[in-house]
């Protein structure tokens, strides 16, 4: 039995669909906080709350493999993930897979510390594991793409920093390959798209898709934060967005490894396809 946590999330739904194409639906468990949201998945649904260890024990009963999709509560992920790791150990699973972040153990990426701590918990558990260090999603730029298509431009502070992104479906396919394949125990995969692109490249793709001029304006971090605050973002969110652009500028999201392409057996989805689909 394969258990997927966070199965009603955007990545989780892709994983469930990919698994259903490979294994019987009755061998798949969607472990979710709100079971009513999972009624359309077509697999067994069990309640699983990262903050309720007893629910995790019930959700993991009979599990052979577990995919821990990282929680979305920044600042609370480590204790939540620890509860999942502990429950997986109690269940005696043969593989625990985890969706981490690029170079999580060494990167200064703003998102890395919680992922690094979770990876350490998994290794210390003694369970066979696979770490899927997911790079950036094309879909992370959906709002930017739509806004730029309407207004003819967007701003940021990433400079010439590149992003080797791929779609959620691409990363989900890698998780499915690990959960249904062999020989992935105790491995770490650095997953990223086949092509790294800049914000100027993104502007060019939006212009191509819309048939209208689109510009990217590079700001200082201070100017970028001011623009985000003016647009109505809370200060903490604005600071986070600016920090991510700084990480991009420093090249932390530019690594093209080819490991995602190798795992899924096909090229990754270029940002141009996502742009075309959105506009």
From TrEMBL:
Domain NmrA-like span(s) in chain numbering: 2-238
Classification via Pfam families: NmrA
Cross-referenced CDD domains: TMR_SDR_a
Name of the molecule in the record: SDR family oxidoreductase
